[in-house]
């Protein structure tokens, strides 16, 4: 975890011999690509959704091949930022659990990085998610209670 903080907050130091002038600026456009979404996934998500993204039948839904993961990015940002609860159908199976929210635990750039990771792993193939989308979500929804799948569909359309 210290690695991310080091990468985000500071210019390169130590063994890096490049001059400050030629280092790329770190901004919200490129910070997500500096953060290792796979490492965040291992730490924050894999206990439930498993390293394979297959989840655990009856308990934790799969991310591999999930229509929710490939859906409108606003849906994914909402789930990560605010959490999810109540019945949800994923790849034809119904789950009914509680997904913790990551608001305040992961930065916008970290949420974007881990979502970009799950959209491109295990055969998934969907657009990357930009930290700006997470900031827009925060502005629009603030601190809200965990979503249900019905609320997500009502707000953003069917995945
Ligand atoms: C404590 C277990 C737990 C952790 C940790 C967790 N999830 Fe979940 N996740 C769940 C459960 C349970 C659901 C289904 C919630 C429901 O039934 O309403 C879910 C649902 C989801 C969904 C929507 C359904 C699907 O399978 O596509 C996504 C996307 C998702 N999680 C991504 C993540 C990501 C990314 C992380 C890490 C940043 C994460 N989750 C961490 C338990 C967890």
TrEMBL record:
Gene3D superfamilies hit by this protein: Cytochrome c-like domain (1.10.760.10)
Keywords: Electron transport, Heme, Iron, Metal-binding, Transport
Claim: Electron transport is one of the keywords in the record: yes
Domain Cytochrome c: 32-122
PANTHER family in alphabetical order: ALCOHOL DEHYDROGENASE CYTOCHROME C SUBUNIT, BLL4482 PROTEIN-RELATED
Gene: cycA
Protein name: Cytochrome c-552
UniProt-listed Pfam families: Cytochrom_C (PF00034)
MF terms (GO), sorted A to Z: electron transfer activity; heme binding; iron ion binding
InterPro entries: Cyt_c-like_dom (IPR009056), Cyt_c-like_dom_sf (IPR036909), Cyt_C_IC (IPR008168), Cytochrome_c-type_DH (IPR051459)
